[in-house]
Design brief:
Elements: H1 3-13, H2 23-42, H3 49-62, H4 64-71, H5 77-86, H6 91-111, H7 116-135, H8 149-152
Length: 156
């Protein structure tokens, strides 16, 4: 059994986390987030990953099928699963996020269009987000290694 099959099987055994009345709302949230993620893949300043995480979360409340679709995407599925399971942000993702935030803040400062109080507020917010990003693990924890074969042999 592959990792994807075990994910799908275990997830689909759980009941959906919302009532029939709320499911249309979660579909709207999921599809809106997915559309924003697609736009973020094209537009340089719009993030992609946070919107994918929101889409997976929303679809998890209304549709096993669409949540599984996100998880099985070859490009971003492993990233979404790593985040959901272990809170992992890969090192390259951290570097990209921090670099983008720093570059955006420098451009805001150089534009001269915002008052000082707004720059301070934005800078403090970006610093808090950067601290959170840096605090996340860069890779999933290693699983416990299998015991050596000589320990599995018959003991008298």
């Amino acid at each position: 059994m592959t990792e994807n099959e075990s994910d799908s099987d275990s997830y689909e055994e759980r009941p959906l986390k919302s009532s029939r009345i709320m499911r249309p709302l979660w579909y709207v949230v999921g599809w809106t987030a997915l559309a924003l993620a697609a736009a973020g893949a094209i537009l340089p300043l719009l993030p992609t990953t946070p919107f994918l995480l929101v889409a997976a979360w929303a679809f998890g409340k209304c549709s096993h099928r669409w949540r599984r679709w996100i998880h099985n995407q070859p490009t971003f599925g492993p990233l979404v699963k790593a985040w959901e399971r272990h809170g992992v942000i890969p090192i390259w993702g951290k570097v990209a996020a921090l670099g983008t935030m720093a570059t955006s803040f420098v451009f805001l400062c150089l534009s001269g269009r915002l008052p000082l109080w707004a720059l301070i507020l934005i800078g403090a917010t970006l610093t808090a987000v950067a601290a959170y990003i840096v605090s996340r693990p860069g890779r999933p924890p290693e699983t416990a290694p299998a015991p050596p074969l000589h320990r599995l042999e018959h003991r008298p």
